[in-house]
Amino acid sequence: MDTNSRTRGYLERSPHDQIHFAIGGGISFGTTEDPDDTTAGLMSSVQTAAFDPMFWIHHCNVERLWTLWDCLKDRKWGNTPVNAWFFEKPWWFNDHDGTVVNETRLHYLSDDLGTRYDSDPSTCKPFSRTPPVKEVVAAVASARLSARKLMTIRAVETLRQEIGRNVAQVTLSPEIATYQSVTFGARQPRGGALKSMLTASAPSARRRVLLEIDDIDYRQAPSVGYNVYVNLPKNVQPDPESANFVGTLVLFGIKHGTRDHANMSSTQQFDITPLVNQSADPSGISVVVVPFDLLVPAKDVKPLRRQSGVTIGTMRVVVVEAQKPSLQ
Fold first, then answer.
1. What is the torsion angle, in degrees rounded to the nearest 10, for the CA atoms of residue 299, residue 21, residue 13 and residue 290?
2. Which residues pair with 183 in a beta bridge?
3. What is the CA radius of gyration of the chain?
4. CA 40 to CA 29: how far, in whole Å?
5. Distance CA 287, CA 10 (A)
6. Is the dihedral of CA 277, 281, 282, 284 positive or negative?
7. Which pTM value belongs to this model?
8. Using CB atoms within 10 A as the burial measure, which of 1, 82, 251, 305 is most buried?
């Protein structure tokens, strides 16, 4: 899996991440002498997840869900990473004949890997065979560029401007929503000026407003997931189908690869451009983080809502522009 939480797609955020915590949640939590002495299931940690037999069933099902989506009609790409991301080679796999292979991400999207599920429609034309890097894919196909040449494909970030920040640490509740405001600085563009600022500097570029949530940590495997909403109207029930829903917090895996969990940092980005454009408040945005059950409890059974010490260190709003890459 990717170590960069900024590139985690919706399917990986949920249900993939959430199932890991739902299955690998807390078995025992602390003692009177040491309340932080916890034991959690294997699935809750990247380092141990594959030792749980459910891991393999879970990942096969995630792949199956991706295949089902890939065969639907009228699909469209959401917010995608910069084009260079598709040409990176972060993984090594043992192929069916034992050969170790190291291919680009684009290879696993656009090439037929020869695997099928019984539920696959016979008329399926996979959407992923047309990834959102058409101009680069066409050039690669015609020129048959070498792997070394592919590594020269880069996206150039020409703008990154922070326009608001809140640095008060917030502890998320497993029971109720957490509200936080991010105010734009007095010298930063507001209202119409901000909307004008979103006009890209060149036709080949795109500007966006991002909510960045940083310094995320937790003490023990959480019993709930957390959805993020921006500018949710008062007295309106949070709904993941609403325009105010911007995504789900990534918690699974943020402690992977670090020895000192207390110093762990995880930055996650949410595209809020449409919400800023439509906002009637030019001074800032409101962020609402809403807990949801990882497992639906049986009738007359209370949901599991343990305090897990989930914290957010910083929320900030930035305007970014990325120039489309060119072949060099």
1. 60
2. 284
3. 22
4. 8
5. 19
6. negative
7. 0.78
8. 251
Q: State pLDDT tens for residues 256-295.
A: 755 443 444 468 889 999 998 888 777 889 999 999 998 8
Rounded Cα distance between 26 and 228, Å, is 24
Residues paired with residue 40 on neighbouring β-strands, in sequence order: 26
Tens of pLDDT, residue by residue over 8-24, are 677 888 889 999 999 98
Cβ atoms of 45 and 220 within 8 Å: the answer is no
Work out how many domains the chain is built from and give that number.
1
- Parallel/antiparallel/unpaired status of strands 311-326 and 170-171: antiparallel
Task: Determine contact, residues 274/243, Cβ cutoff 8 Å.
Answer: yes
Task: Give SS3 for 166.
Answer: strand
- Label residue 142 exposed, middle or buried (CB < 10 Å: 0-12, 13-18, 19+): exposed
CA atoms of 67 and 289, how far apart (whole Å)? 30
DSSP state of 298: P
143/137 Cα distance (integer angstroms):
10
Give per-residue burial for 64-78: e unless 16+ CB within 10 Å, then b: eebbeebbeeeeeee
Owning domain of residue 152: 5-326
